[in-house]
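The passage that follows is intended for readers who have already worked through the single-chain material. We present the inputs for a multi-component assembly, then the predicted structure in tokenized form, and finally a short commentary. You are encouraged to pause after the input and sketch how you expect the pieces to fit together before reading on.
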Amino acid sequence: MKNEFKYIFRHPFFFYFASVVAIAGITLFGEIIKRYLEPTNLVMLYLLAVVIIALRGSRGPAIFTSVLSVLAFDFFLIPPYLTFVVDDWEYIFTFAGFLIVGLVISELTVKAKEQARKARQLELLRATEKLQTALLNSMSHDLRTPLASIIGSISMLLQDAPSLDEETIKELLQDALGESHRLNRLVGNLLDMARMEAGALKLTPKSCELRDVIGVSLQELNHKLNRRPVNIQIPQNLPEIPIDFSWIVKVFVNLIDNAVKYSPEDSPVRIQAGTQGDQLRIEVADEGIGIKQEDSKRIFSKFYRSSKAEQIGGLGLGLSICKGIVEAHKGRIWAENGKEKGARFVILLPLGKTL
Amino acid sequence: MKENHALRALIVDDEKTIRRFVKAALVSQGYTVFEASNAMEALENLIACHPDVMILDLGLPDRSGLEVTKEIRKRSKIPIVILSVRDQEVDKIEALDAGADDYLTKPFNAGELLARLRAVMRRLVPQTETTVFQAGNLSVDIAQHQIELNHKSLQLSPTEYDVLKVLIMNSGKVVTQKQILKEVWNKTEDMDGASHLLRVTISNLRNKIEPDPDRPSYVLTEPGVGYRLHSED
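Having made your guess, compare it with the prediction:
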């Protein structure tokens, strides 16, 4: 029903029809009160109909309403009735004025409406442009910063290795390696996002142990975790889950990477799992800056960076990729704040044998 | 190469890995190095550590490097080398106009950084006795107002000479268009007309002094920023 109504509303003749109905209504009203009131007082009502039709519809129906108003006014409300003939010549001026005002109003209204529409479009375009610039800036910064460290460290080693002490050499090499991994993760996320956008996220689910998934994820982040305590609580008897191993690893790499990024250097990262009905519930929690209430949903949208996170590098892709992957597994992911401090990301994945 | 006897450098960048290799490069040249990861620390260390030179990243977490440059120039002439990434062009030029001495675009290698520092530090040494600039086959005696190319005297128009002189006074360092326009034409406005004049003058100058004007080896263009006189062989 609702759709049919919408269809009628969009029909090209809808506003012509509406115009006829409105003028018929006003004229009927005029018929009733013309005994008590000068008919010219009704002109304002007709003009109101012109304005409304011009605002809602377009130029054509508005002009049509202006002309029809004058005709109906003359035919029904000006003596002699039911003919276009007029006794009093004064009315000719009323009609002319009425018609001109009606046409001018419909033209002005339509123009004002078009201008408002153009302004809205322009604003939208500007917002998009602004977003794109911000995006390019952050990409340029985030891709170049690790590169700058890599090029700088390696060029230093090549140029003047003999003058450097052993510890400095080791530090420079570790920096170059660490930053290469960082760059690799960024590029990986960009590629994953491109794949997901192209609809090329193909899952090959197999039964896996969560313990294994977490182990591989931590392995990938090994160089970054350093001596950071990771507290893992996975029950022994946890059932296996049907998932695409490598994609789910990406989810945990991103979540653990975030946990490390947004919390103090020596604070622990906690990974906890258990069953909840016919689902597996996994939590990745940190003791860091936490998440603002209004950000808890938006952080999952592409390229969104929380204002709290501005100081910390990142493209704002990780969590949107996590969401895409988890949802492709028919699961759910959300963020909340920890009981005392920090952020907690919760994932629910169906335990069922089929996806 | 002059020995840097315990020169002190302050490195300001929020990325630890950048600070680390810049520090290694400077330490290898005998500098004593201090670090800061934000603008506040930078301004504190400027007072506490009395550095001789400052390497300043434009994108700091608390205040921009541009603001820091302006703040420092109110009270200190310490040489400042700016570090920037490509999307900070405008800030970079503003920082140079505000008094920063040179810039490096990330990523850069350790050798480039040291070359820039050498050029910046060279100008700290008062050059009263020597007024002859020598680079390759080009020799300019500022006191005598004489230019020689391949040991032959060379005539330059007064404007060409003035532009060359500004570049020599800042040799090795980038000079922004605005700075040259102010020094030579004393212009701060009418940028369009004046900058065209500057381009023409540079082109004429190159025709006279460059072995191959299409691929300049002395007067180098710094795209979007200005010019630099190449001073090292």
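Commentary: The mean pLDDT of chain A is 84. The CA atoms of residues 217 and 252 of chain A lie 6 Å apart. How closely did your sketch match?
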